[in-house]
Amino acid sequence: MKKFLLSFLCVLSGLLFGALILKLSGISPIEAYKVMWNGAFSRPSYIAYIIIRSTPLILTGLSVAFAFRTGLFNIGSEGQFIMGALSAAYFGYMFHFNPWIQIPLVLGLSVLISALYGGLAGFMKARFGVHEVISTIMLNWIALYFSNFMVNLEGFHKANTETTEFIQPASSITLLENWKSSVAGMSWFSRHEFLNEFFRPPVNAGIFLAIIAVVIVWIILTKTSFGFKLKAVGLSPEAARYAGINVKKKMTQSMMIAGGLSGLAGATHVMGVAKNIAILAAHEGYGFDGIAVSLIGSNTPFGSLIAGFFLGTLKYSGQKIQSALEAPSEVIGIMIGAIIFFIAIPVVFERFLKIWEKK
Q1: CB neighbours of residue 88 within 10 Å
Q2: Nearest by Cα to 10 from 330, 300, 305, 295
């Protein structure tokens, strides 16, 4: 409860700081936040886009939170996301199986490759003492440039573009993708206005996979001896070693699971939304945003779920104030930065809560 209150106060402080920036820019904060609210919840399609936007944030946030709970700081979620997206794009295009085989196969390979990529950082720390922050930052850039190399690969690159070929229809996890454009589908949707507009964006099964992942991670961390050992290593490696836990092995396993979660985020984004990948001039940011999600969610599985939706809503609705009020869209980045800043100095709010509890 205390962690929830701290996160709430930090978010509230960030929103107030954003209001101050808007006011200094000559824009009414109340009007801006009203536009953001309407831009998030006034239409079914807006809600659908928020779900789509939030799905990878939930998974990358969960990845960072899992690693953090086991004593590791996974800065490499961005690179693991890229590896998952690249794997999904490649296998999703190259394989030609029945959807019931192809979808789990492509997802499984994407998660596996990302898990191995994430585990590399854990192995380097366990075996050679290389700090995971340093190794994961380097692995982020390796993933970026390796992805660009693969995009230009003959047989995978789409001619006269800077993208890959689209994945096969059998690899798609977009819900009702073909049916909603059929005669029967259009006839049904014409009688259900809310669902017609809700399913207009590429709503996909990724959100269900994200929720399942949250539940599984929660079970691992709170209900299994494996999770207990991982948390023990995070709290005190020396004490865990003294208790007979293989610390090096657990570090590697923790980063593998974290990498797999970020890879799942990349795979669901490609298979459900993008359908291909492009040459990247810079990182897309989903992995780095996952750090913010994890921190806002107090590094817990269900906290990451709520924080992922919150950040997804903030990022999507924040775009609306630029067109409606000619406000700088960068104010959303300022809000998120302020929220993280307040989370980094919780002592201010902890003292406030102590005074409140005494009263």
Answers
A1: 33
A2: 295
The DSSP letter of residue 118 is H
40: nearest Cα among 340, 309, 293: 309
**Taking the CB of residue 176, how many other CB atoms lie within 10 A of it?**
15
Q: What is the pTM of this model?
A: 0.93
The mean pLDDT value of the chain amounts to 90
- DSSP β-bridge partners for residue 208: none
| Residue 330 DSSP code | H
Average pLDDT over residues 330-343: 77
Q: pLDDT value at position 344?
A: 67
Both tokens assigned to 110: 């994407």
Residue 262 vs residues 11, 55, 286, 294, 339: alpha-carbon distances, Å: 24, 11, 9, 13, 23
The confidence score (pLDDT) of residue 57 equals: 96
How far apart are the C-alpha atoms of 104 and 91, rounded to whole Å? 11
How confident is the model over 30-53, as a mean pLDDT?
Answer: 93
Report the alpha-carbon distance of residue 133 to residue 57 in Å, rounded.
20
Q: What is the pLDDT of residue 342?
A: 76
pLDDT band at 321 (very low <50, low <70, confident <90, very high): confident
Cα(307)–Cα(57) distance, integer angstroms: 9
How large is the average pLDDT for residues 136-149?
96
* Listed residue (303, 237, 267, 277) closest to 66, CA to CA: 303
Decide: 73 and 287 in contact? Cβ < 8 Å: no
- Least Cα distance to 279 among 152, 166, 159, 92 occurs for 152
